[in-house]
Fold these 2 entries.
Entry 1:
Amino acid sequence: MHDLTSTAGTVAIAAGAVAVIALLCVVALGFRLRRYRSDQRLLLGERREDLVAHAATLHEQFEALSQYVQDMAGHLDERMQTVERRLDHVVAYHALVRYDAYGEMSGRQSTSIALLDATRSGIVVSSIHHRDQARVYAKQVHDGRPELELSPEEDEAIKLALEREDGRPGHA
């Protein structure tokens, strides 16, 4: 026992303790490395590439997907602009006014219909009914103004159509 109390013995005990601690660290690191390899196999499958190569492959695939999405978004923007241009020329505002054109108490058989697009251009069609005849008139409207003078009923049809712009019933 004298050898353990000497300086050389103390150094030997300290070296043994350091060796035991190092051995325990190596065992713990071995378990951690096994767990990391298991996680890597779960992530990569059975391919023989490391995480850096896998990350590079994922980055390339992400860039390709990103480019595809940008191309499709550009294509959709072009299509949307085409659709919006076309929609500007469809009927956006409409109204119908019924009236008795000749005061004959015929049941308000005459009508004026305003059909306007988003630019407030379109037509006003009037059908004037009499007992033995009917006449149809059409007048163009550009930017809310008629080309020809309107009858009061035609003017009312345009006003009603444009009043419905705020979303009340009747706005198309």
Entry 2:
Amino acid sequence: MNIDWLSRALEESRARGFLGPGSIEPHIAHAMGFADCWADVSSTPPSSFLDLGSGGGLPGLVLLDYWGCRGVFVDSMEKRMNFLREVLAWPGAPQLGEVITGRAEDIARDPSLDGSFDLVTARSFGPPAVVAECAVRFLKVGGVLIVSEPPNDEDESRWDTKALRRLGLESRGRVRHNAAYQLLVKVATTPRDFPRAVGVPGKNPLF
């Protein structure tokens, strides 16, 4: 990893108020938990991943630097996405980072992104139903959605099996790599109706 570039990028993100106060090391460790989760299901890095709700760049910047594969950052906040474009242009930055500003419900239907990714990550995008619906179309069949979970990892009811099946997702359960993460695999093609229009997944969640 290019720790000099990565540390500088995350410190700048913190300075602009996109990350919480305190040391950046716990943020890096939490982001690497996503990589550990991926290693649980695959012996090789993903060929591509999408970071949903990238915000201040976590976990996407860490994973992009670690794997060196294509990484796409998606968020609707223009100010934060301009920041990501800036740091990805710095000397030493990984070469395969892409930044797309907009709502996931719209972006997921872009033919160049629909069904294109081995992995989608979500750190603090929203409730489980919103994350699942907004993420699923980006994934290839066989692709994996990894979601950061609350510290209490006992509540399995957060992810409704029947509703997930409507989206073409199957839960593989909760895992811990210091922090807690939920793993879901796309087992079927996304139905044409999903994701629904902008804002609907949050206003009328599937579960």
